[in-house]
Amino acid sequence: MAGGRTSDIAALHAAARRLRARAMRSWPRTGERLPALIFVSDPARTPAPDVIAASLPAGSAVIFRAFGATDAIEVGRRLKAIAVRRKLILLVGADERLAHAIGADGVHLPERMAARAGAVGRRRPGWIVTAAAHSRRAVLLAARAGAHAVLVSPVFESASRSAGRPLGPTRFADLARQAPIPVFALGGVTLHNVRRLLGSGAAGIAAVDAFINPEARKLRT
Fold first, then answer.
1. The pTM is what?
2. What sign for the dihedral angle of Cα 111, 113, 119, 125?
3. Do the domain assignments include residue 97?
């Protein structure tokens, strides 16, 4: 990966760590296991997730979303090898069997599956279980179900086809500060706007396009 892109990711990681340091005062035990920066893969937008994973700083996380791809185990095992080498956390989106098959560190559940968080945790002690949430109600449901953290989206305007109306930093902060579990900001987060999340209570940053958008090379904190 180009040096400029690598330095941008490092800068985004530094910003995420600043967020995490403030927020995790409320979650001293949970915080030890959670990353500051999460790369969320997407088959259409990130067809080579291993290339991006290989540029992530130690302690970051990858959420591998295969969506039933026929080469999911092959790609997943490559990601696992990179995760071990670079000391990353590897989660698999929605698919507990795939996560187990590739030796992942846990799963990330879509909002519709968040109620399964506790059951997954009981079956797989030691796994990290996160969930997606798009509202305060969804955050509370995921917390009650046993999720360790939630990725709340969209915070800003997002390129995702499924993204709804963005919360904006003020509404996101209100939600994050009142959440009973750590909250990650997802949806349109870049080096350009991450400053707007300082003091929001976010436990970190999750993103897709921030790792691939050429415009991110021009942005600096």
1. 0.92
2. negative
3. yes
